[in-house]
Write a structure and sequence with these properties.
single chain; 469 residues; alpha/beta; Rossmann fold; 6-stranded parallel sheet
């Protein structure tokens, strides 16, 4: 059986359940094949040794964890500058926040070249390589330039914008040609897949071969939408764990006279947090009966605080929360409980289960797994309601949620009110349908489907058997 080699900006130890469902799912295949997970160590050095960064290999059971450090210059250009200062805002449709500094793209390419050089000696001829996310779009092209013949797949975890927005990136043609160097390219949603197809047709005159296959840049690439899921069984087991039960009981005790709403996000301008707060304020203004009966718990975990756009969103969010509490709060009730910190993963399921409504209202999101985790954590006999942005990738699958336009303050407030008033029977019906969907399309389905397609293509060409979970 072929060995799986996963490449990502950061790696996770698949033996640690705190790493989450993705690490667990990838860990199963990596364990079965004695695979390798390669990426940045997360450590920074002032400068590289004379012969460049060294690969550090650690054994995690049958899996090799291989990492390299970055120096300060590469970190600033590759990670802060290009990945998060150009690609992240543009791919989330925020051209106004992109910093098109010409030096950043050179650092981005330099680190991808370095990753390719350091990875190549670790590879075997029959390996299957699976590259993750926007940090490493050109990696396949750099590996090919070094003579790599192995099958290479890619998955973009964030959205892909329409062709006209993509075309605003200086060097977008180089970037997308690099994406076409993969044998299989996976996207979160059909909308992202459609944007890719429209781009390569218009800009690269790609030939549609049918069944998701395209002839472009003198090679064949297979592209499709493969929405990522969660490990439903693992998350439900977490819900029954001690930390989650303790959190649930505490929330029920402290808010016995309230209906809880919950939002759990990274602090990021793509998450629509100010818009969410304005919708909650509109709810309190238009529906006085919700005052003293509804409490929103908003967790906004720190994220990329060295970028000015994140400082701006932090100040705006804090101002809105303070304003709402000041205008509507009582001595025995605060409308918003806002926390700018990370909550332990083991406690979150208890918070989800204690909440009547989850607000997952990003302005743009690749998928958003909080929506799926909320569904998995619910009591089927008395489930909460998911209010979900139509601009989250999850909206393509989770049609029984209350779908909203987060830019529409009044409309979102009306949906939240509907969720708070929804009868038990309707809540049960919606939850049952949503739970069936996330069970069918869980993280194992996602992993198995992509590796099946990638490995099957290799089997057609070389006779090598493809990987299975």
């Amino acid at each position: 059986m072929s060995r799986l080699v996963v490449v990502s900006n950061r790696i996770a130890d698949p033996r640690k359940t705190a790493a989450g469902g993705l690490a667990v799912a990838l860990g199963e295949v990596l364990n079965n094949s004695g695979g390798v997970w390669f990426g940045w160590s997360g450590k920074l050095v002032d400068q590289y040794p004379g012969d460049g960064p060294q690969v550090q290999v650690h054994q995690a059971g049958p899996v090799k964890l291989a990492t390299v450090d970055l120096d300060q210059a590469d970190y600033q250009s590759y990670y802060v500058g290009y990945s998060n200062g150009v690609l992240w805002p543009v791919f989330h449709y925020r051209l106004d926040l992109a910093d098109f500094d010409a030096g950043y793209i050179e650092g981005y390419r330099r680190v991808n070249q370095m990753f390719a050089r350091k990875l190549l000696p670790l590879l075997r001829p029959d390996d299957i390589i699976w590259v993750q996310d926007y940090h490493l779009i050109p990696l396949a092209a750099e590996l090919r330039a070094l003579g790599c013949q192995q099958r290479i797949g890619y998955f973009l975890h964030i959205p892909l914008p329409p062709p006209l927005i993509l075309a605003a990136i200086p060097g977008h043609d180089w970037l997308m040609k690099g994406l076409c160097s993969y044998d299989l390219v996976g996207f979160q949603a059909e909308a992202d897949h459609e944007h890719f197809c429209r781009y390569i047709e218009a800009e690269a005159h790609a030939q549609n071969l049918g069944e998701g296959r395209w002839r472009v840049f003198n090679r064949t690439v297979h592209a499709g939408a493969f929405p990522i899921g969660i490990d439903v069984k693992e998350f439900q087991a977490l819900t029954d764990g001690e930390e989650a039960r303790e959190m649930y009981q505490r929330m029920k005790r402290e808010y016995s006279r309230r209906k809880l709403l919950v939002g759990v996000d990274r602090l990021d301008y793509s998450k629509g947090l100010p818009q969410r707060m304005r919708a909650f304020r509109e709810l309190l203004a238009k529906h006085p009966e919700t005052r003293k009966s509804a409490t929103l718990i908003q967790i906004a975990s720190p994220s990329r605080e060295d970028v000015s756009a994140y400082t701006d969103i932090l100040h705006e969010l804090e101002s809105l929360c303070g304003s709402i509490n000041g205008n509507y709060g009582e001595l025995d009730w605060m409308p918003v409980r806002y926390m700018h910190r990370t909550v332990a993963r083991g406690r979150l399921p208890g918070l989800y289960r204690a909440s009547r409504v989850a607000l997952v209202t990003p302005l743009r999101d690749g998928m958003n797994l909080v929506a799926k985790e909320f569904i998995a954590a619910q009591d089927p006999e008395d489930p909460g309601v998911l209010v979900l942005s139509r601009f989250a990738g999850a909206a393509e699958q989770l049609k029984e949620a209350l779908l909203v336009n987060p830019y529409d303050t009044e409309g979102t407030a009306a949906a939240i009110h509907l969720a708070l008033q929804m009868p038990l029977e309707e809540r049960r019906e919606r939850h049952a349908a949503l739970l069936a969907t996330i069970r069918q399309y869980d993280v194992h389905w996602w992993c198995d489907t992509i590796l099946h397609l990638l490995g099957q293509a290799e089997a057609e060409e070389t006779g090598t058997p493809w990987l299975r979970l």
